[in-house]
TrEMBL record:
Transmembrane residue ranges: none
Pathway: Purine metabolism; AMP biosynthesis via salvage pathway; AMP from adenosine: step 1/1
Cross-referenced InterPro entries: Adenokinase, Carboh/pur_kinase_PfkB_CS, PfkB_dom, Ribokinase-like
Highest rank taxon of the organism: Eukaryota
Organism: Dinothrombium tinctorium
GO BP terms in the entry: AMP salvage; purine nucleobase metabolic process; purine ribonucleoside salvage
Species classification: Eukaryota, Metazoa, Ecdysozoa, Arthropoda, Chelicerata
Protein name (Swiss-Prot/TrEMBL): Adenosine kinase
Active-site residues, as the UniProt record annotates them: D307
């Protein structure tokens, strides 16, 4: 397959995972157990740096490429296999430090072509994930760092990568970093007619913050595919003041009641163990795709499952497979990912149509 066909832009992070025998380290640093925290501000970030240094110095840690878009891109490459490296390109911003270098090394190992802006003043975004209590507790703490410092000039300097791609993917998270660049790509996809632009709703809170809501609503008309989960879709419906009782109604409204600049817009909503719901503009029909049942004891980590679904879906879509096969592969990838520690996948993709 040709290189650089999928172009993703997002907030690159490096996940740093440690499995702890007890929770003394968590208590020492005053972290909220089994919760996710994002630190902002000078003092908080200094505290985080101290915590990170102590963790890396005293515990065995595992490094995994993180960030919602990167999770999807490396799953996409996993689906395509090791003989198709570099079909996906990842753009974002990292720091000029050891963690930025490690992130680039790891994403290349995952088959993704990195094209990162380097910010010399801000540390690479990292996320500490502490696994404790026999794998029952997952305590995380992150700084977004340089990921928020992306500037459009880097996109403009590397715009040949955009011209070369035929499929684009971003997350609503990135609208808080550089929405101008996102719209530049979306408009390019629209003008090119045959190019596909995809968006992930990212998180419930996106729909309640002004800095995200306005660009999100302006971006959806450019989208060919919008991905999300049932909580994000419900938050979107609340933001729009839609009076709905069923998730199927939300999916239909998302497909039909927002302007579409493209001929087709597909809304694809995951619901954990419940069927995937899919709707297309111009129709009130909702397709439901059942997911594979999996025992609770097989589930190790659900973080990034939605990203894995998107990567699996796009891995088949780029090969011109049917909607049903794309969804089936998305379900397969998500199911595989939740049986691993951290957002990782088995060595080979054994998906079969």
């Amino acid at each position: 397959m040709a290189k650089r066909q999928l172009f993703g832009i997002g907030n690159p992070l490096l996940d740093i995972i440690a499995v702890l025998n007890d929770e003394k380290f968590i208590d020492k640093h005053g972290l909220k157990k089994n919760a996710a925290t994002v630190l902002e501000g000078g003092e908080a970030e200094k505290k985080y740096e101290k915590l990170l240094d102590e963790l890396v110095s005293n515990f065995g840690v595992k490094y995994i490429v993180g960030g919602a878009v990167n999770n999807a891109l490396r799953t996409f490459q996993w689906v395509l296999g090791e003989n198709n490296e570099g079909v996906a390109t990842s753009m974002g911003c990292i720091g000029d430090d050891i963690y930025g270098k490690r992130l680039q090394q790891e994403i290349i190992k995952n088959g993704v072509n990195p094209c990162y802006m380097i910010d010399k003043e801000t540390p690479t975004g990292t996320c500490i994930i502490l696994v404790s209590n026999n794998n029952l507790n997952h305590t995380s703490c992150a700084i977004i760092g340089a990921a928020q410092r992306f500037r459009k000039r880097h996109l403009e300097q590397n715009f040949d990568l955009v011209k070369e791609a035929r499929l684009f993917y971003t997350s609503a998270f990135f609208l808080g970093s550089d929405s101008e660049s996102v719209f530049c790509i979306a408009k390019h996809a629209l003008e090119s007619e045959k190019k596909i632009f995809c968006l992930n709703l990212a998180a419930e809170y996106i729909m309640s913050k002004a800095k995200f809501c306005k660009p999100l609503l302006e971006l959806i008309p450019y989208c060919d595919f919008v991905f999300g989960n049932e909580f994000e879709a419900a938050a979107f419906a609340k933001m729009k003041n839609w009076k709905v009782n069923e998730m199927s109604e939300v999916v239909v409204k998302m497909a039909n009641e927002i302007e579409a600049k493209k001929k087709e817009r597909w809304i694809i909503i995951t619901q954990r163990h419940l069927p995937i719901l899919v709707a297309k503009n111009g129709s009130n029909k909702v397709q439901a795709f059942p997911v594979k049942e999996i025992k609770n004891e097989q589930i190790k980590d659900t973080n990034g499952a939605g990203d894995a679904f998107v990567g699996g879906f796009l891995g088949q879509f780029i090969q011109n497979k049917t909607l049903a096969i794309c969804v089936k592969c998305g379900i397969f990838a998500a199911t595989e990912s939740i049986q691993q520690q951290g957002m990782t996948l088995p060595p080979k993709c054994l998906f079969s149509e």
